[in-house]
Each structure stands twice: as C-alpha cells, then as structure tokens.
Amino acid sequence: MPGTDLSLLIDAALKAGDIATRYSGKEAKRWEKPDGAGPVTEADLAVNEMLEATLPAARPGYGWLSEETEDTTDRLTRSHVFVIDPIDGTRSFAQGSRTWAHSLAVCEDGIATAAVVYLPQRDMLFAAASGEGATLNGDPISVADIGTLADAEVLAAKPNLNSTHWRDGNVPDFGRAYRPSLAYRMALVAQGRFNGMLTLRPSWEWDIAAGDLIIREAGGLCTDRFGAPLRFNNPQPKLSGVVAGGKQFHTQISFALDPDSAGIPGH
Which residue, 10, 89, 128, 180, shows the most beta carbons closer than 10 Å to its own? Predict the structure, then answer.
C-alpha cells in the first residue's frame, strides 16, 4: 500500500542522508560518466549501495530503476518499481553546496504512488502518497497559483527562455530563479515557494518521479512539455521535459510554449 511504501521511503531517505553527509563534497572522490552523462561521486555510490540492499529486500516483488545501477529489462515485468536518484544535484554536492537531494519514489503501473525528496543539509523532507496529500517535515503543503504569467516566479534554467521555445517567439515576462537539483525545484513548487517550474529537455525518470507525485498531491499539475501526464518505468527511462505548477500557471505556460519546438536544446 502507498502509505506503507511511504514509511519505507522515509526511513531509507533518512539513512541516505546519514551516509551522504559523512562525505565532504569537495573531497569526495569523483568520476565523469561515459558519453558526457555527468559526474558521479563515491557518496552517490555509497547511498545507492545502501538503497539497493535495503528497498528491494523489503519489497521483493518490486522492480528497480536507479541512476547509479546498470539498467535491465527485468523492471519492465513488474507492476511496482522503485525509481531512485541517490543524489540529485551531484555537481552541487561535489562543489560543497547544500542544495542537493535524495529522490525516492515507488511507481505502480507507471504512476508514482509514494515519494520522498530529502535535503539532509537543509533539514527538508518532502513526502507524498497517493490520496494523502503532500508534506514538508510532516506539515501539509500546497502549490501557490497565479492570475497571470507576469505574476509568476518560475524555476527554470536560462536556456529555457530562448525565444525558439515559445509561441511566435514571445517569451513570457515572468520572474526566473534556478536551483541545481531538479527534484528540489519540483518540491519547492509543491511547497508554494515558487509558482511553477519547467525543463524543456528530455528528463530522466529518477530526477522527476518523486517530484511529480509531491506536486500533484500538493494540488498542482505536472506533465511533460506537451501536456501529457507523466508515466514512469518506460523502456527508455526518459520523458519529454516537465511543466509543473498551479492549475492556472500550468494552463497559461503550456499555451505560451511553442508545440513545434521539440528537439531544440533546453535545460
């Protein structure tokens, strides 16, 4: 059941935080993944090792998808799957920043049903289960909607403001901010600190599965860049970007995006 899964994820996230914070980000051993896939540190691997030993043992019938585990097709045969990013924001971690997160989710038949985004160095634990609402450190949270896009504060990387992404080249006049962890960006929208977020490039499932549920349970909408609901445990675990926020924000930002701009680089 989602509630039971949520308790499992919360316990695992807290253990992950204990492990990761034993490392000094700047001093942790670091490698670059092949094909420009980004960095990985010994902390990522230590957290992943613990999670992979703990979570599947507690749920033997669940599949496993993690950024730091070689993927197999076995998960595609399972109705329930763990979708895990041991450390989201590894570059931030390696620079000694506190703005990185553990992102843990359970998905059932492609839909996230339990989720945790935990920032141990900021003492922020976001959590949600289907039909039970979203919380920050146990307190309920909800999205903050807007009247017009001009009123919105949006989390987005600067390349998303390239005019080629927007209908008739008109970039909406909203406030923009940025955080290096995609999971944290989504959690901040669920908290109501920002009205929305978007990333227009293909996005890995492990970066967004937990944030998707937390935003939806906080009363918001979360889709890909074309407005389709996010579904997880795909053979290629990547989705077509993310657009999320309050319902009015989502409607207005989705209309402003150029539906023919797919394939143009964005972040």
Answer: 128
The response to whether 10 counts as a known ligand-binding position is no
Q: How far is CA 59 from the centre of its chain?
A: 22
Give the three-class secondary structure for 45.
helix
217 is in an annotated binding site: no
**87 annotated to a ligand binding site:** yes
Does the annotation place 67 within a ligand binding site? yes
Nearest partner of 232 among 112, 59, 69, 117, judged by Cα: 112
Q: 23-41: per-residue pLDDT in tens?
A: 876 677 777 766 656 678 8
Per-residue pLDDT tens over the stretch 142-192: 999 998 999 999 999 999 999 999 999 999 999 999 998 999 999 999 999
Is 111 part of any known ligand binding site? no
2-140 falls under which CATH superfamily?
Answer: Fructose-1,6-Bisphosphatase, subunit A, domain 1 (3.30.540.10)
* Chosen CATH of 149-256 out of 3.10.20.340, 3.40.190.80, 3.40.1130.10, 3.40.980.10: 3.40.190.80
